[in-house]
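The material for today's practical consists of a large collection of protein records. There is nothing in a record beyond a sequence line and a structure line. As an example, a complete record with its sequence and its C-alpha cells follows:
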Amino acid sequence: MANSIVVFGAQWGDEGKGRVVDIYAEGADLVVRSQGGSNAGHTVFVDDKQYALHLVPTGILRGKRCLIGNGMVVDPEYLLREIATLEADGIPVRPHLLISENVTLVTPYHKALERAHEEFLGGRKIGTTLQGIGQAYMDKYGRTALRAVDLLEPAILEQKLRENVEFKNRMLAGVYGAPPLEFQPIWDAFQRCAQELAPMITDTPPLINRALDEGRRVLFEGAQGTMLDVDFGTYPFVTSSHPIAAGACVGAGVSPTRIGKVVGTAKAYTTRVGAGMLPTEVSEDLAERMRPVGREYGTTTGRARRIGWLDIVVLRKAAVLSAPDSWAIGHLDVLDEFATIPVCTGYRWRGRLLDAFPNSLQVLAECEPVYEELPGWQQPTPQARKLSDLPGNARRYLNRITELTAVPVSMVLVGPRRDQTILAAPPWD
C-alpha cells in the first residue's frame, strides 16, 4: 500500500487537479504543494460552495496539515489575502499551514517587470498571468531572490530588498521605459507580512521525511501541467517550473525512492489558457458550446480556455515523463451530448505519421492531427457513481484511453461536486 502519492497534470493545466487532490486528501495526513505560485488555480466545490485556491494546498479544505514546499514562489501579500478569505469562510488555515524556509518570494518588482516584458513582446507575448512568477524564478536561479527565511531576519531582508529594488528600477527604466518603484511601500508591506507569516515558516523537508518514516500518508499536489513544463512543454509558451511528477521531489525535498504512486490528471478532452499551439483545437463555435458545461474559464485569470479534442500524443508524452500508475479523467460529462467524439492518436507531418510530440514548434506548426472517431453516448453521466453506471460507449471511451496510453484509469469525474466521482480503485491502495 502506497503511503505517498504525487498528483500531476498531464496536459496544459486546468485538468481538475484540485478535485483529484481533494479526493485523495481525505485519506492523507500531509498535503505538500511543490511548485508554481499564484499563477495556479485549483477549484473545489464543498457542499455547493466554490473555493478557488492559488497558494494554499487543497488539503486545507479537509483540515489536513499543509506545506508550501521550497519549489514554490510565493507572493506574501497574496498568500495572506488568500488565508484571510478562507478563514472568513470558516476554513481554519493558520493552525494547519507551514511554509518552507527556502520558498522564493514574489515581489511588486517581479510583477512590474513581467507586465513590462509582456508589453514589450506585443504580438509575441507568452500570455502569462502577470503574477510575477517567471521573474521570481529568474531571480531564484540568478541567486538574487528573497526567500521566506529572510522574513525572519529584518536586517538581511531590508538589505536584500533595497539592493533588488534599486537594480530592478534600473531595468524598468533603462530597458522598458517604465516608471520606477518606491522602496518604502514595498518594505513596509514586507515587514507586515513577516510578522504574520513568521510563525508558519520552518524547515519542511525533515517534517515530510519524518512523516514518511512513520508510515503516514503524504500527498504531493502538483500545479499547471506537463505541456507547460519549462523543459518539456511547448517552450517558450510554458510556465517557469517543473509540473511533471519528478518536480515534486525537488520542490518538496524528498528522494524519488520515497514516492509510492503517481497519478496523472487529464480532461476527457484538452484545454489550455494563453498563447501557444493546441494541435486539436476545435472551432470557436464548438468551444462556446462546451465552455459553460465544463466551466472553462481560468481560475486565476478568468480568461476563457481554448478547447481541443483529447490528444493522446500529449498523454503519451506525459506518461513517458512521469510514468503514472493511473489516470484520473475529468470532465467526462462535457462530452455527453456528442454523437461521435474524435480522439487524436498521432500527427501527420510532411507525409510521415508521428506518434510522439515534437519538440520543435516549427514542426508542430506543420502537423495535422490524425483522428480516430469514437461513438458517443448521448446520455447524461453526472449521476453515475461507479463505472457500471456509465453508458457503454462512455466506458469504451475510457478503455480506449487506457489502450492507447498503456495507463489504466483509476478515477473519473462527472461533475464539479465531491460526490460526482467514480473510483475504480480505493485511492490509497
Remarks:
- DSSP finds twelve helices and 20 strands in the chain.
- The first helix runs from residue 17 to 25.
